[in-house]
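Narrative of accomplishments. A recurring question from our advisory board has been how the design workflow behaves on a single, concrete structure rather than in aggregate. To address it, we present the structure tokens for one chain from the evaluation set, followed by the sequence designed for it. No filtering or post-editing was applied between the two.
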């Protein structure tokens, strides 16, 4: 159908603008069923009053045309904003709707999981039927990706459906979880720009809703959408002094016991003005907006770059009573704060902020100081260190092999045992470089053998495969790959055609991020334990080693998938860095092997791994 034809067909009669707000509609029409929600019964904004103003920007009578909500998890946004908006459109001011979700699979279940229950809860199911009789009678007006109702239709697509994104004029555009979308679709360009162009016919009545938890700063769509709007934040009053403030993570205080477990009763929020302590149960009062008898309110903090554009940001600190408690947020924080990967998730889902890779390479001089804090010589281990398992990582150059031998203890606390430069022509498998490596592999270190060695096969590929074939176990070729994703495990084991060995493909970018996080860990103060990931180095390692270790610098590159962070050594030597990454990958492979689950997305069973090693050592 031609765009204008759709516009004419769906807006044929003169229509009055409804004065009903989306929030009023929801409280009048929606009954939340048991089983789907913790609070069944008539829908009320009392629990999540901060969602009221957002959803009312989407009312027909509001001049606002575009709304962006950047949010943490468990704030009730999907039910209160997205679902209510959909029901309101279908019931009160119908028009063509396109809803785009994270991917095609999500789009398929979206209708079933979100839309159908919402229609039922608002008594709207009877409105969904074919609006135009088709010749063969196949069209029910209600399919997995399309629903028809009087005055409009709802299409649900994944962002990759570029052709579909181009084919209909739409009045209402819902962009759900847009940070999960790809940046570009082949030659078609950006999926969101394509979808937004579809609303041009309805310039004076369209509504565009962006709603997402942010992911990476460098490529975050929702963050860009938030910055383009008026950047509203939710201000709440202090129960004692009345000072209006936004909730900030640093003002949430807690204590831990001797075992570093959270003391639950200690969790409280401190008023930034008078120092009064607030508890999680105070949320029921301070979250209330004017309609709910309180004074909390959204306040813009910027001037929008476009007319009629509102943007909102809210973190999980605001999660209502009955939702995510402050105590449970602190518990998650204690788990995440020393783990760069968990910290990223925490930043996205709790703070509702995009992750900015701040784990730039640390200063080499600061890492070098650690050599002297608990001095030990190459070939030995620091006095405080109890080794449980050894690994080796080797980098193969034309005229030499460089290898690092490492020992590990729980929490991935590591000690470098020794670093070797084995000179010799590496094209000759019987030459002195390879003989030197075989010699290293045959020895014990701190009374433990090397459990797994990973040898870089990127340069002398078939020679490395041949060398590894000579071992029944414990020595594998590896290749680093910075752009590919290997799921949560960060590595993949692959067969090598023509050789009796498997190869380990490694996600080097993630491991480098992790390493640089660990290198930031300082030497513990007296009475404290080493932080997870702490790295010990022998006192005789030269400055050159440390320069190489952090040689890969973070750089942003534009790719077909958007701007992405990479690590690039430029012209600097980085063999020590590579050896370290192969050692880390070897530890991942060993830990991954203790569970039967081999799926790349199965989490590595670290607890089980360390428990087994400690039992072995006992
Ligand atoms: Zn106060």
């Amino acid at each position: 159908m031609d765009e204008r034809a759709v516009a004419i067909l769906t807006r044929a009669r003169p229509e009055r603008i409804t004065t009903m707000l989306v929030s009023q509609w929801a409280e009048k029409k929606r009954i939340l069923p048991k089983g789907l929600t913790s609070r069944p019964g008539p829908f009320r904004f009392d629990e999540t009053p901060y969602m009221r103003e957002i959803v009312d920007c989407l009312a027909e009578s509001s001049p606002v045309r575009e709304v962006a909500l950047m949010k943490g998890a468990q704030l009730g946004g999907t039910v209160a904003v997205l679902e209510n908006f959909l029901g309101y459109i279908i019931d009160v001011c119908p028009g063509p709707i396109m809803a785009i979700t994270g991917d095609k699979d999500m789009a398929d279940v979206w209708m079933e999981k979100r839309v159908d229950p919402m229609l039922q809860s608002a008594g709207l199911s009877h409105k969904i039927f074919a609006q135009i009789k088709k010749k063969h009678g196949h069209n029910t007006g209600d399919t997995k990706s399309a629903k028809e109702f009087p005055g409009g239709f709802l299409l649900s697509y994944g962002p990759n459906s570029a052709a579909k994104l181009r084919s209909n004029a739409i009045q209402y555009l819902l962009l759900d979880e847009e940070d999960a979308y790809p940046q570009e679709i082949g030659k078609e360009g950006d999926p969101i720009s394509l979808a937004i162009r579809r609303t041009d016919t309805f310039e004076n009545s369209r509504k565009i809703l962006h709603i997402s938890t942010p992911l990476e700063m460098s490529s975050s769509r929702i963050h860009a959408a938030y910055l383009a709007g008026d950047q509203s934040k939710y201000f709440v009053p202090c129960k004692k002094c009345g000072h209006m403030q936004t909730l900030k993570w640093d003002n949430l205080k807690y204590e831990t016991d001797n075992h570093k477990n959270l003391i639950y009763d200690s969790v409280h929020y401190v008023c930034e003005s008078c120092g009064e302590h607030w508890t999680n149960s105070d949320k029921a009062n301070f979250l209330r907006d004017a309609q709910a008898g309180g004074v909390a309110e959204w306040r813009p903090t910027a001037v929008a770059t476009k007319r009629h554009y509102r943007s909102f940001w809210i973190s999980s600190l605001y999660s209502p009573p009955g939702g995510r408690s402050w105590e449970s947020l602190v518990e998650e924080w204690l788990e995440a704060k020393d783990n760069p990967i968990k910290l990223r998730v925490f930043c996205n889902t709790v703070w509702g902020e995009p992750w900015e890779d701040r784990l730039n390479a640390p200063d080499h001089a600061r890492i070098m100081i650690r050599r002297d804090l608990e001095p030990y010589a190459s070939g030995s281990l620091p006095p405080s260190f109890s080794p449980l398992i050894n690994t080796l990582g080797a980098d193969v150059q034309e005229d030499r092999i460089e290898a690092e031998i490492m020992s590990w203890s729980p929490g991935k606390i590591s000690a470098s045992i020794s670093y070797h430069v084995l000179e010799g022509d590496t094209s000759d498998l019987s030459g002195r470089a390879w003989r030197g490596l075989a010699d290293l592999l045959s020895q014990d270190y701190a009374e433990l053998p090397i459990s797994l060695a990973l040898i870089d096969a990127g340069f002398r590929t078939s020679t490395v495969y041949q060398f590894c074939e000579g071992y029944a176990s414990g020595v594998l070729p590896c290749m680093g790959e910075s752009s590919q994703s290997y799921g949560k495990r960060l590595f993949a084991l692959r067969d090598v055609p023509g050789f009796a060995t498997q190869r380990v493909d490694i996600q080097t970018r993630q491991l480098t991020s992790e390493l640089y996080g660990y290198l930031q860990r300082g030497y513990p103060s007296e009475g404290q334990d080493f932080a997870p990931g702490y790295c010990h180095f022998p006192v005789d390692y030269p400055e050159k080693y440390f320069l190489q270790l952090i040689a890969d610098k973070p750089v942003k590159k534009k790719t077909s998938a958007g701007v992405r962070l990479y690590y690039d050594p430029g012209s600097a030597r980085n063999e020590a860095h590579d050896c370290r990454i192969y050692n880390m990958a070897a530890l991942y492979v060993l830990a991954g092997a203790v569970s039967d689950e081999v799926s790349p997305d199965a989490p590595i069973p670290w607890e089980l791994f360390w428990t087994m090693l400690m039992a072995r050592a006992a």
